[in-house]
Fold each of these.
Amino acid sequence: MIKTKQRGLLIVISGPSGAGKGTICKQLIQHNSNIIPSISMTTRSPRENDIPDITYYFVTKEEFEKKIKENGFLEYAQYNENYYGTPKANIEKQLNEGKDVLLEIEIQGALQIKEKIKDALFIFVLPPSMEELKKRLILRNTEDNEKILKRFKRAYTEINELPKYNYVVINDDLDIAVKQIEAILLAERLKVERIEEVYVGNQEEVIHELLSNKDFQNSISEIK
Ligand code: 5GP
């Protein structure tokens, strides 16, 4: 009866460092085979739990800057003295094949995507409180205190940009946060804007057919 767009969703998830975006994204990918993660390129050093070419493509500053010159990024930004960027390759292709592409990126990059891709979906993940965010950043134990402080300060700046996003999810309980994002994705897929065609047939033909049916005619006269 209706034909909807087969193009996948470009999902952009941002939020302060420590809000739990990474864990949420991992779960979304595990539970939804249609969601493909975009692998970012970065100049930051790998952490203990990083897997090169899976969590990030780790490159030197020179390699990153070369790719900028070649116009190889859909977006890129500097975050705490390091570059992070989304390689262009494959994203359009995957969207056109109906795959949903998930970008877990910071706000400057998200705003670049907003300019370029009008139908992208922007979700902001918040921690339940700033106190909890501080605790999570310290407990994560992946960086020295100076870096933790920088991330914490930046969280305040990022939260000011919340109104530029389409949806907000508070990550207090991981399972609930993941379910909420799945509900957002479902609602997005059902949007009227995604309908390309509505098939209702030719009204006159359908009515003519109905009226030529003897039983139907009889039932009408009975009612009369
Ligand atoms: P982390 O160093 O904790 O892995 O990432 C730091 C920040 O960079 C996070 O907010 C993360 O979402 C963001 N980030 C990761 N990849 C990209 C990217 O490709 N582009 C942009 N703009 N930000 C990214």
Amino acid sequence: MSFKIIGTGSALPEKVVTNFDLAEFLDTSDEWIRTRTGIIERRVINNESMLDLAEKAALGAINSANLKPSDIDMIIFSTLQGDYVTPSMSCLLQKRLNAPCQHVFDINIGCSGFIFALDLADSYVSLKKAKNVLIVCCEILSRFVNWQDRSTCVLFGDGAGAVVVSEGESLIDIKFTISGNAEHLGIHPVAGNSPFSESDQSRKWLYMNGQEIYKFAVESITRDIKEALERNSLSPDDIAYFILHQANLRIINSAKQKLNQPDEKFPHNLERYGNTSSATIPILLDEVNRKGLIKNGDKVVLDAFGSGLTTAVCILNWIS
Ligand code: ACO
């Protein structure tokens, strides 16, 4: 266990889509979306590619680490799907940055992807197979939601968050739960036209049983955080910030109440960006970091849940 985060970055598409914009073509309202989710607006890709967004977030993280792209020797790219099925986004980003990487790969673990990527980076850095690992989480959910389905499309947004990870002693704990289950949340593959297939090959969209995922999230967040704190003889009072997956403000508020902690320890930005899947935590981390809120020696909890179904929790001792 031997890494620390030495730089953060993020990038959002320019196009802002408000709840009022959605209410122009959907049977919904700003009042419903705001009170049920906390979301006020989200960013949606217009003419940018995922690679454009990822490059911007990556350069932000590299600059904030006081490094150059030529210092990056590994890229882990978390996404549900890149600009292409193949080549991978990590390969394309390596070329865009002209980074002399030995290792690049994409991971698809849904919303928990950032914390899984941190765990992978920890392994490579610990084994000295990499020195400066760039993690980029970039998601374009607007490609997968059915824009006629008010129960899902209002929840999501597009965006990218990035960090650079290097050798250090930040990691206190990291843990995951995994239960292969596509019943309540998933995205079907793109349409095919094989003349030999007997399954339905028409284009399908993101589907979600919101209430089941809500229950899963509310239970798992406090359970995972409490267990991680106990394993390390810590209490919620010892934590400076809880950076939680940004899916629904009611889910964040429930964790806050159950952990009996004040508002200011739970920064959030889902009101501006919606749920950007694996990008939510690194985007928020970048905002908090750039505001100078996290101080050297602060203990920070990261916690995510999502399709898989997976949960992920991580406690860091922030070193700046
Ligand atoms: N506008 C207006 N009405 C709506 C909308 C909308 N956008 N969406 C649903 N409704 C209606 C429903 O049709 C339903 O109407 P009915 O009572 O006449 O049948 C009513 O509102 C209530 O619907 P519920 O689904 O019960 O609403 P709920 O309070 O559960 O909120 C929500 C739904 C916001 C999706 C909530 O369940 C939730 O946040 N779940 C967790 C979602 C989540 O975390 N997803 C991310 C996980 S993984 C990832 O990030 C990829």
